[in-house]
Amino acid sequence: MRRNPTEPETRLWARLSRSRLGGFKFRRQATIGHAIVDFLCPSQRLIVEVDGHTHADLNDDARRDTALAAQGYRVVRVSNEDVMRNIEGVLEQVLSALAEMPHPNPSPEGEGLEQEPEHAEN
């Protein structure tokens, strides 16, 4: 785990922390198995990775994303440049991904529906 986040990570964290984005809670530098991800929304199983210009090994990223997807996570990758120049667009992308995720605990069929009270027959 890195002690010092990059400037783009710091800027994005300022917008994700304390449930500022749509009320969703994120964790920074979260560990999932052997992987450390930049940001994780545990309730929606959404990972946000911020990739730098020196981020050269796309094959490793693809393998890691596939392994995380096999564990039920979705990975959204954004560039350092996008975070620095278009953070609103990045936040829209993350919100869109969150909206596409299924609710973690859908209610069983019929639960929560009001039912007519049974009337005793005389």
TrEMBL record:
Gene3D superfamilies: VSR Endonuclease. It comes from the Bacteria. InterPro entries: DUF559, Endonuclease_DUF559_bact, Restrct_endonuc-II-like. Residues 98-122 are annotated as: Disordered. CDD domains: Endonuclease_DUF559. Pfam families: DUF559 (PF04480). Residues 1-98 form the DUF559 domain. This is DUF559 domain-containing protein. It comes from Sphingomonas panacis.
